[in-house]
Amino acid sequence: MVDFITRLLVFAVIHSLLALPNLQRRIGKIFPRAGRFYRLIYNFIALVTFFWAMAAWHLSPVLYIVPGAGSLLFHLVQLVCLVSLVRCAAQTGIGDFLGLRQLRGNPGDRRLVTTGCYNRVRHPLYSLALIFLVLNPVMTLKWLILTMFSTVYFVVGARIEERRLVAEFGDSYRRYQERVPMFLPHRRTPPDAS
To answer: What is the chain's percent helix, strand, coil content, to nearest 5?
Structure first.
């Protein structure tokens, strides 16, 4: 268990440090031609370190198993979450998210997306990922720790990301924050006034 938690922490530190805009700018100055590869390399490192973390602790105790039709229902909701994650990522640009657009040398203009998935909550990718994690029908201690760790990581990451978005988009983002909740949708979200 300690090895798994340690690996998760290593993943989180590397992922967080590489996401820092100042570090990205410094690396861009040192390797000016490599800047367009940054997001792609960042994603590759994130995948490698995440799978390295998940490779630890193979024999984690099972806390519970959702039986029969309940298990199928959990898997169905997880599938809906995965499809919704792709849909939400497509709204902001899957090419940008993966680093493919930057690879072609076309970073494009960043725009504030407040429609679709982003009209219900400000961080739908985090919300959907947490639902996916919570609804695993086979809950091991390892999966529970991953879920709790991810919850903290997403909340902290969202707050840091929001500061950057306020700095980038100013009053437009502040109005968006007032109108749309962070993670859990309200019954009715007023239409976008901008």
So the answer is: 70, 5, 25
